[in-house]
Amino acid sequence: MTVRIRPLDPLRDAELIHPWVTHPKAAFWMMQDAKLQDVERAYMEIAAHPHHDAFLGLVDGEPAFLMERYDPSRVELVGLYEPRPGDVGMHFLVAPTDTPVHGFTRLVITAVMRELFADPATARVVVEPDVRNTAVHALNEAVGFVPDRAIQKPEKEALLSFCTRAQFETAVGATI
């Protein structure tokens, strides 16, 4: 499978991702009741933000996942942990499907991590999924994340976890 990641175009892509972010399986994305205009607005805000970016992932040319990259010292985690130079925050969401493919989500998170570590300035990836999201905790650990501690964010209790380049390479058995 070939994975390509491109910048998300909020106006062009909102109609595509709206059913993804509002799907019951995307409950931890916290946009269940969002209307199309809400999704457009949210991603226009990200597009305009100097420290937050959104991307669309394509697998074999088909839109398959959403990825966000952010500076955790300026977005999401300000004041909740001690940031280090080279820290990059990440969110990802796989498009819902009626025909799941075994190993697909792991392929996606691996591609997301490769994309983030393709930037030589990225030293460590930081995530803060909901503490109840055990499925994503397992995926995170599979690509090298190490849980640090639970933190209280305004919208959720989150499991702060970190993954260095070396931890990722060891977990996936490859050098970036």
Strand content bin: 25-35%
Output the number of helix runs: 5
Shape: globular
Helices and strands, in N-to-C order?
A: EHHEEEHEHEEH
- Structural class from helices and strands? alpha+beta
User: Widest sheet: strand order?
Assistant: 1-2-3-4-5-7-6
Spatial gap, N to C terminus = 18 Å
In the predicted model, the low-confidence regions spanning at least 5 consecutive residues are none
Helix content: 25-40%
Number of strands: 7
Specify Rg, calculated over alpha carbons.
15 Å
Mean pLDDT over the residues: 95
Biggest beta sheet summary: 7 strands, mixed
Please, could you describe this protein's structure?
The chain has 176 residues and is an alpha+beta fold. The chain contains five helices and seven strands, in the order E-H-H-E-E-E-H-E-H-E-E-H. The protein has helices at 10-22, 36-48, 104-117, 134-142, 165-172; strands spanning 3-7, 52-59, 62-70, 87-94, 124-127, 146-152, 157-164. Helix 1 (10-22) packs across helix 2.
